[in-house]
Amino acid sequence: MLKATSISRSFGEKEILSDVSFSLKPASINGLIGPSGGGKSILFKIIANTCRADRGWVTFPQGASHRDVGLMFQEGALFDSLSVYDNIAFPLVGGKVPTTGLPREVRQEVCDKVSYILARVGLTRAAYKMPGQLSGGMRRRVSLARALVARPKILLLDDPTSGLDPVASSVIMDLIVELHNEYKPTTFLVSHDLRRLLPVIERILGLFDGTIAFDGTLPELANSAPAFVRSFVSCRFELPAPSPVIDAPVVQ
User: Per residue in 83-126, pLDDT tens?
Assistant: First the structure.
C-alpha cells in the first residue's frame, strides 16, 4: 500500500500542502481533484522524490521505493534535443542517452521495451522524430510512454489530457485505462477534465486549500462530500443524484 503521512510543504510563507495523509490500495486507479494551484503537482513530485516535503513522509509498498514510481509531469518535460525513442528510453538507462553507446545486450533489451510501449501508444512511426515535430497529443503520448516503459509499480499521471481537444483527450484516457488493466500498477491521476476522469477511477481524493477535503467513491461524493467539493465537481461533471434517505421503520 502506498501511504502518505502528514505531508506538508511551503514555499516562502505560502503553505501549499498542510498535513496531507492518505493511502492507496495496490493495483487501484485513483483520481486527485481540486482547484488549480492547489498543490496537486507538488504532491506528486514529493511521492516521486523529485521534491522534498518540509514535514511528513511517504511509505511505499513492501519491496518498492521511489525508484518504482513512474511520473508523467504536467508540462510533459520532454528533452527537446533527444528523439522520441531516446526520451522514452531515458528511465531505462539512467540518462545514458543516446543508447548507441551501451553494450549490445543492453541495447537490445532497451529496444524491446521501448518498441513495445511505442506500439502500445501508437507512435512506432514517430520513434526517431524530435519532440518539436510532434502535435500536442503525440507529445502527451510520448510522456505517457516514458512513464510506463519500466512498468513501474506506482504510476503518477499529472493532467495527461491538459490542453488537448476532446477526441485526443478520450484517446489518452482510454489508453491509460487499457494499460492499467494490462499490468495493474497503483495509479494516481490528476485531471481537470472530470467528465473523462471520474467515470474511470475507483476512488477520488479532493485536495482543497492544501488538505484532503474528500476521500471516497463517486456515489459517496454525491451523497456526503462537503458542499464546496460537490460544487467544484458539479460545475464540470454531472453528479449522480444523491441516494434518498430512507427512514428506519418505527417499532410499535
Answer: 999 999 998 887 777 777 778 888 899 999 999 999 988 899 99
Grid cell locating 175: 489508453
d(CA 82, CA 123): 15
Per DSSP, the three-state class of 194 is helix
Q: In what order do the strands lie in the sheet with 69-72?
A: 69-72, 154-158, 186-190, 29-33, 203-208, 211-216
Domain spans, the chain: 2-234
H or E element in which residue 16 lies: strand 14-24
Q: What interhelical angle do 104-120 and 136-148 show, nearest 10?
A: 130
116 torsion bin: left (phi>0), alpha (psi -120 to 50), beta (else): alpha
Helix axes 166-183, 136-148, angle to 10 degrees: 10
Please give the C-alpha separations between residue 227 and each of 3, 32, 181, 214, 233, in angstroms, as whole numbers. Answer: 27, 17, 33, 11, 10
**Measured CA angle at 199 (ends 198, 202), to 5 deg:** 75
Angle among Cα 133, 50, 180 to the nearest 5 degrees reads 65
Cβ proximity of 237 and 64 under 8 Å: no
Give the CATH architecture of domain 2-234.
3-Layer(aba) Sandwich (3.40)
pTM value is: 0.89
